Amino acid sequence: MKKVLILAYDFPPFVSVGGLRPYNWFKYMKDCGYEPIVVTRQWDEEYNGIADYVTPSSTSKTVFEENGFGTIIKSPYFPNFPNRLYLKYGEHKFKLIRKVCSAFFEISQFLWITGPKKEIYKSANQYLKNNRVDIILATGDPFVLFHYASLLSQQYKTPWIADYRDPWSFGLGMDKKIIYKRWSRFIEKKTLKTVSEITAVSNIFLNKIQLLTDKKIHVIPNGYDPEIIDNLELQNRTNKILTIGFIGSIYKWNPVKQFLKILSTFVSQNGDDSIRLNMYGINNKKNVQKLIETKYTNLQKVVTIYPRLPNDEVLAESSKSHVLLLFNYYAIIGTKIYDYMGMKIPILFCFSNDEITDNLRDKYKAMNEYSDQPFDAQQKLIEEKNAGIIVENSIHLIKTLESLSSEFKENGEIKCHSLDNQEFSRKRQTEKLSQIMNALTN
Asked: What is the pTM of this model?
């Protein structure tokens, strides 16, 4: 069986969307003829904030773990100077010093083996000294893993693949960091000169990467874990009240305030036992709670906010929902939409044509880097798969909630009429990746 070395910073037990992609490769790679060896960092605790993210690992030694899927090499984590300042003094002290030092490490990590992520390189290098692999695969961000893969590829004469979960020098917010953007663009072009193949999660990223390299780029979208989803289908949605579910991050430019306002109006007209909104693992819990406590007090019984949970647990909980809320991500499709479609629960997409929402997007310059791309990527996918309801604006939302309420009262459920979406199974995506690897290793 061939071997593939996978560099992945985010990886379970760390709860993150970014860790799901390499974890599912690890899970299904043996079925495709490859033994996976994942090199990641040690994640020791339940991570609910920055302090946990930069806390030193419980051991200073590399940990090896083997199971039926393959091998996981967990490198130790040592916080750098700005992270130690944060841990000792909190987020409000020495902000400028921390910012300057962090910028130094962000740049210097591409010049020397330095910074808090260097242990991943050292662990991978140590493994390769004694073990031969057929291919190296790095998934980013962090994109210093691409740099490490490039160095290891040249040292051990092994082809490597760059997997873009996110854009690098074309990332959101890069337009505000002119110098860092230019540096990143330079390093990205230099790194891609040594790559054998490139994969990306969407055509949007493909279009950007093509500006920097003439290497072939393969689109392998994100997806859903079929084993988890298939088990969820055995569950009955027992909620007796119409329930909306929402998973994941809320960005500054998401119209959460507008959505809560309309939900509050609906509750005022129908009572606080007419609907529920369950939010799982959101990143700004305090802000949402404050909105409810000060502006939309009639939602205190309606809205429940859950902590961050492992992927299988959050899917099990959210699968009890009757519809799933998805905010417009414009040019970017994102990850959660695939889990939503996999669960075969109707998607409530907000909003497709709303002035307030578009003003928020423009205010926070959310899509400046993708202004040359179509802004309806999610909408097209939902329409293509008949996977939900495209809500235009606030007026349409209140009508939609009334319609959903009527359907639920009549049938006790909200039917989903989505088309086949097995093409987004993570197992199938791993098969696509293995075909690219076969072409290299053969």
From this structure: 0.87
